[in-house]
Amino acid sequence: MIKNKPRKDVEDIETQQLRAASVNRGKWIYHIVKEGLAAGMQWKDVKEAIRKAGAYKGYHDLLRTADLKKFAKAFATDALRKTNDAEIPVLTDDEFVWEVHYCPLVDAWMQYTDDEEFIAKLCDACMEIDRGTMDTYGWNLELKNTIAGGDGKCTICMQKKK
Amino acid sequence: MIKNTPSIDEKLILKLREANENRGLWYYYLLKTAKDKGFDIEQFARKGVRKVGQSRKSQYPDTTDLKVFVEAFMDDINRKLFEMELVYMDDKEARIEFHYCPMTGMWTRLTEDQKFLEQICDIAMDVDRGLFDEYDCFEFSLGKTICEGYKTCEIFIKKVK
């Protein structure tokens, strides 16, 4: 059973607007991917597309650095923290853990379907965005919990390769 | 040559612009990758985007009054995000111009392929066509667009019933 309610900033107007913008993105992703799959696209094609978007973010939007702590600071903008009701429980030289308590994409998808298996697959495909970003730094991404998988939070571990 | 420069620099609008440019990033790669692999984006992406638009009806007033609809369509956030200008409105028709498109803002960073830009712009506009599918009383049409190289996107809304 998916639990996906933000704990913080529920009444904050700016956060509401930012969440609504991301929910909207989720709606576009849902219908384009669903129709793409119906037209014969495979999940690997969807993942390839999103991974490319992630690589773009790595090269163009985020700080180019070999320092994971500096990267974390640039990644975890105030807007992203608020949108995703997120926090950083671990930050060392080798590991940056980003914990998300609300996912606007899952929120959008649950407005269209209660097929949790499909939502979990779509979530995994969408996580290619961060995997694609990590590729550009040569770092790993490990997903320890996911909201779409019913864990109540996403625990996204970004790690330097040993 | 596409000209698409925003002029509003309010803090919230800057953040929302970035969020909408991000939507443009995902959209671009989903369509570009599909097209490169031989899938017909005219067929499936139009269908998908139109469904998004149809699903947005619940966010708009259930009205036959054009002015009431336009007020919602041009709410404070949308007006600033797309730098919308109400050029003309009476009881029967409205003409709105968008002076900035955040999706195009992203796409032009990703490609110079004018033909593809125009194609993905027109497919994206199916979101509005989809919304108007849900209104028997209004008709939507698109005029010139920023992606075609014009200064603004022209939106025409007519009351037909």
Structure report:
The complex is a heterodimer of chains A (162) and B (161). Chain A has helices at 13-38, 43-61, 68-75, 78-84, 104-110, 116-126, 128-137; strands spanning 86-91, 95-100, 139-145, 154-160. With 162 residues, chain A is α+β, with helices and mostly antiparallel strands. Chain A has a single domain (13-160), classed as Trafficking protein particle complex subunit 3 (Muramoyl-pentapeptide Carboxypeptidase, domain 2), CATH 3.30.1380. In chain A, strands 1-2-4-3 form a four-stranded antiparallel beta sheet. In chain A, strand 3 (139-145) and strand 4 form a beta hairpin. The model of chain A has no long low-confidence stretch (mean pLDDT 97). Chain B has a four-stranded antiparallel beta sheet with strand order 1-2-4-3. The A-B interface holds A 14, 17-18, 21-22, 24-25, 27-29, 31-36, 38-41, 45-46, 48-50, 52-53, 56-57, 60, 79, 83, 111-112, 129 and B 12, 15-16, 18-20, 22-23, 25-34, 37, 39-40, 43-45, 47-49, 51-52, 55-56, 77, 109-110, 127.
Provide keyphrases for this structure:
heterodimer; A: 162 residues; alpha+beta; Muramoyl-pentapeptide Carboxypeptidase, domain 2; four-stranded antiparallel sheet; 7 helices; 4 strands; B: 161 residues; 52% helix; globular
